[in-house]
Amino acid sequence: MSGHENATNPTVERSFPDPYEIETPAGAEGWQDLYAYHNLFIVGRRKEDGAKTWFRNSLHFPEVSYPFDQITIDCAFAGTGVTNTRIYALPPAKGLDVRVVNGYTYMSALPSPEGEELQRRAEEFGPRAGHYFQNWNDLYADWEVRVKNAISAVKSIEVPLLTEFEPLEFVTKTRGATQANRLLENYFELIAAGDQIWTLHSEFLNLGYAAYLQFLLLCKLHFPELQDQTISRMVSGVDVLLFRPDDELRKLARLSEKLGVSEIIFTAKSEADLIAGLSGSAAGDEWLAALDEAKNPWFYFSNGSGMYHSHRSWIDDMSMPIQGIGDYIHRLRKGDDLSRPIEKLQTERDELVTHYRGLLDEEDVASFDEALGLSRTVFPYVENHNFYIEHWFLTEFWNKVREFGQRFVEWGFWEDQNDIFFLRRAEVVEAVIDLQVAWASGGTPQGGYYWPAVIKRRKEIYAALSAWNPPPALGPVPKDVSEPLTIMLWGITPETVDRWLTAQEGGASKTELGGFAASPGIAEGLARVVLRPDELDTVKEGEILVAPVTSPSWTPVFGRIRAAVSDIGGIMCHAAIVSREYGLPAVVGTGFGTTTIKTGQLIRVDGNAGTVTILNEIPVIN
Q: Which region ranges are annotated with the description Disordered (predicted)?
């Protein structure tokens, strides 16, 4: 019997691959050494963990995790879990179990509370959440201060130089901790900062989603036929920080035209090129001053999700923002209006609200207004936290880790400062202690004789894992998918699960994909499949972007494209929100867009129906 027949034969039980029977890709033998034991499926838990459904979190972690970068996965899920479970006592949900399979991240929701436990948690949740909802703006202002302090603190962490001698002042004044002592202490301070930021990350986030969910459920109660997209449009048109970096590029493009320096920007590939071409003239110096003002903090914007050290930010590599400024200059010369259609969105939003509010019974209007008002109040945070944490904080965090990596380069442990990311964060402690002992005594560390071979092998394993195609889910098919965040953020629904199973069984359509209708409108154009941020410069005017997941920092590219398609995501994912705010049709959560669609194929994106159709199988050469 073929796999596809399973889909129509109710006597054959459908399932995803067993996580305990996944084979290791050729060349990746020993991959488990890259991760701590708590990240792995352990044989002793097979009965428990093998009975659960595990969804791949490709929304936040689409790539193989580097050993050190696992800190963002461990701590992000801990932050979400502690917020739900221990801080707010969210009644219907706790946290998630997380495992790594062949380098990729899978998650499984812990059982939802029921009965007396649900009631007990609801009694705890009321006053805790109520305090935040009633004092949202003041508490959020305090949160901004605290997160900026956390960013400043991680930036100011010292990586001791390990000089030949302690300075004379150490003997005459300071005494106490040596440079070697501080190397270990400050490394622990860095790791603690990377851990604690995720509690800050989730402090408002889950409550923000809860408020939006309350409004969504209220709308569904009164208007069962209402699409999620329509409900989301009632809270759109709200300015959020994630659009500010792109707004800065538009301002710089306008200024370059005003000052007559655009031709130099067209030829620049780096910040050094800009400085060389513009310094010395009044117009050039004025433009460079505006660039410097925009950079801090708005260029602390990762080219990817920010969750990987390899996703460099604009502040580290200016090639993407320079190209974005150039694109906007070309659009200005064509007469395009560079402003986002925020007034149009707000008009449509208000018309929708007026229409559906007018259909309610008089006694239901007050609860509708209250839920809508709270959603609009909290909505900016749902996106703003992303700039502060995933982009600004993590840019500083990864660069501080590189400073530690450079210290080991100087002492011969490895050749490149980025090699530190092929060590688990606990292993770096061992390397620090090795360096401590050797520096203290005046001897030679062991690390240079040990780590190069380990790192070389781990790079080979990483490459082999990156070539593997991970399944979207593992374990038995879930009986139900009803957890709201799983649906809204990741786009995992019973229909999604069925599409995954059908594709696994060989029955998926080769010409049409289904997903979430993320942003309204219909567009046709040539597809451009982009798997990594460093491929964005290949996107041409009028193409349709097809990606595993999009990053907020890709917004300059949205000025070039006609529509967007992503493999993963729900109605509240970043790709959906950005597309709605920029007025672009989008379908998210297609599952297999990047593996089904080829660059150069003519495709139609229907953001109203949530479908993507391949109109010609043979790609057009472009």
A: 1-23
